[in-house]
Amino acid sequence: MSENVRKVVVIGLDSAPPNLLFDRFLDFLPNIRKLLSRSIYGPMKSCIPAITIPAWMCMATGKTPGELGLYGFRHRKGSSYNDIWIAHSLMVREKAVWDYIGEKGKKSIIVGVPPSYPPKKINGWLVSCFITPDTNCDYTYPKELKAEVEKIVGDYIFDVVFRKEERDEVKEKIWEMTEKRFELVRHLMETKDWNYVQFVEIGLDRIHHAFWKYFDENHHLHEKNSKYKDVIPDYYKLLDREIGKLLKLVDLDETAIAIVSDHGIKAMKGAFAINQWLIEEGLLKVKGGKVINRECPTRLDKVEVDWDRSVAWAWGGYYSRVFLNVKGREAKGIINPDDYGKVRDEIAEMLKNIRGPNGEKWDTKVFYPERLYPVAKGDKPDMMVYFDNLSWRAAGTVGYDSPYLRENDTGPDDAVHDEYGVFSLYLPGLEKKREITCTIYDFAPTILKLFGVKSALMGECLICARDS
Amino acid sequence: MSEDKKKKYTTVSIPTPLYEKIKKRIEDTGFTSVSDYVTYVLREVLASLEEEEKEEVFSKEEEEKVKERLRALGYLD
Known about the structure:
By secondary structure, chain A is α/β, with parallel strands linked by helices. Chain A has 13 helices and 21 strands.
């Protein structure tokens, strides 16, 4: 099969879920439908945690978050209580697909794959991702490419902040961002001599989060007949049109086309205020006993924590990271290192037993980093928690009457992540579709195989002999 | 060699066995000459050294800007 393939294009659609892309919306996505009819495709299980950073780099490198030492967007600095560092490209020290093939002289175009700021040198051209502070920074490799980007699309848009009430503005800006990104990618494809293209459109994730409740009739905050009810399907149509224009630039007899996502998406049932719960359980102590601030949620780093008496604290987000206050590790640690395993198991058990606001059973998962990965490098948390299998996001803020929040704590957001994203690979010569299930770790070995590169990665190559 | 090319390129010496080794290595790859390959590898090494030497990726102000955005996007609380 790989003999027919001379070029590969990877279209990254952040948070695309299999049920919408491969099924429910497929009828009105003619370009994607056509590709799928001759593709290997199916749901792709994300990494743990199923979050944009590290998921895109787990996909590109074939390595786990533990091997990368990336467990999310932020990490605490060593054993500090409040100091954090933000994930960036230089923290990715494993080789990505484009590095392997670059060594073989193949040239890549990479746009918006997180984290790719600051732009690293590659054999080809790179435009960084949405963690770029702003367009005043150098966000391309080579540096001179920036002027070309701006000549083509004017002010380049990395991302759109969606958690605000002005939904029309959010929608308009996401449309503009996506059109610009595709225009840029097509320009690069037309003007550079490339072998591999990979880009990530973050707009889909933002659209899902901002407009899910208008579209999903089962969402607890669903608004019937809202003027926004078709925003999500309309955005998929926009993506399909843009992909159609891109496909006109390639020879499908020699180009493989992948469509992938880093994780899926589903309705948010609510947010669970994890630190509030830890306070109620007596595991986290704050000066004055408790924090009440109904007007405005309070971040834990703005609260006076009594560390000398606290056992654990946590961070929120789409998943929660729980930290233990260990003697000799944290500045004011109180857990005896000999008791670490016992205390962690006890708290994990308590977390797994948390029930929903109406006493309903939750499918909460607790992961220990060092048991999850071949190695857990860097600033890892003690526990990673999926509340009700991610249906409830975690809020780190405190000051509520109850830990169960119907809405998100930091601005409107209607969706959470799902573990299953998408993988599809159109191959020249493939006569019909073949449905599969796979993991995010299978991506890199599969793409490398197309370029004839052998790797010792843990994932499996998804192309088999009968695909030729 | 044209005047232009003379200005843009210069010659460095490497041991002959290394040259031969590289020549063999780049057979059937996208590299068209040993010079191409050597340029590629040196750029890689220099870029990664420069990356390691960089002290801070974000200035204080940039870091705040990124944190604020990530907070507004729901990744941080």
